[in-house]
Amino acid sequence: MRDDNCIFCKIANGDIPSATLYEDEDFRVILDLNPAAKGHALILPKQHAANLFELPEEVAAKAMKVAKKVGTVLAEGLSCDGLNVLQNNGEPAGQTVFHFHMHLIPRWKGDVKKIHMTWEPGTLTAEDKEEILGLFH
Ligand code: AMP
Ligand code: ZN
């Protein structure tokens, strides 16, 4: 299913041209127009889902296979020192385009001055632990 008002639907399905690194029946992988680093790529499913919660399970599973395939070529080809695979759901989590996508961000030693993905580590409280374990058991 596509959403006519969604830019990533248009890009993923080839209605808007993009720098495409990889394409198959279900996905297109493109270069990010405002890269955090050289080689920053986005994995876009061709079907519309706003976020991970809306994405069918089998498409979610396949997205990780595409991440491995394309991430490996990027990492070897660019000789980077690391690679972030990240994915934002919802505005508070940093999502700005509401069509599911996964970021592949090649990383080099010392680039933390330019790329910030850190948080202030907290402490797991007994209360939180019980509450969250209770969601699963
Ligand atoms: P997020 O903040 O996780 O929603 O990421 C959205 C990403 O999409 C950002 O890294 C943008 O630079 C990128 N982006 C937005 N529009 C385009 C576009 N037309 N082509 C390529 N990348 C885009
Ligand atoms: Zn879409």
Question: How would you describe what is shown here?
Answer:
By secondary structure, this protein is an alpha+beta fold. The protein has a single domain, classed as HIT family, subunit A. It has helices at residues 7-12, 57-78, 126-136; strands spanning 20-23, 27-31, 41-45, 82-86, 102-107. A 5-stranded antiparallel β-sheet has the order 1-2-3-5-4. The chain is globular, with a radius of gyration of 17 Å. The relative contact order is 0.17. The model has no long low-confidence stretch (mean pLDDT 97). Bound molecules: adenosine monophosphate (AMP) and zinc ion.
Summarize the SSE layout with pairings.
Elements: H1 7-12, E1 20-23, E2 27-31, E3 41-45, H2 57-78, E4 82-86, E5 102-107, H3 126-136
The structure holds adenosine monophosphate and zinc ion.
How would you briefly describe this protein structure?
The chain has 137 residues and is of the alpha+beta class.
- Could you state the order of secondary-structure elements as H and E? HEEEHEEH
Low-confidence stretches: none
Ligands in the model, by name, code or SMILES, are:
adenosine monophosphate, zinc ion
User: In DSSP terms, counting alpha (H) and pi (I) runs of 4 or more, how many helices?
Assistant: 3
Reported by name, the CATH topology is HIT family, subunit A
CATH superfamily: HIT-like
- The secondary-structure class comes to alpha+beta
The CATH architecture: 2-Layer Sandwich
**Spatial strand sequence of the major β-sheet:** 1-2-3-5-4
| Outline type | globular
Beta-strand proportion = 15-25%
Report the top-level CATH class.
Alpha Beta
Amount of helix: 25-40%
Q: What about the largest sheet? A: 5 strands, antiparallel
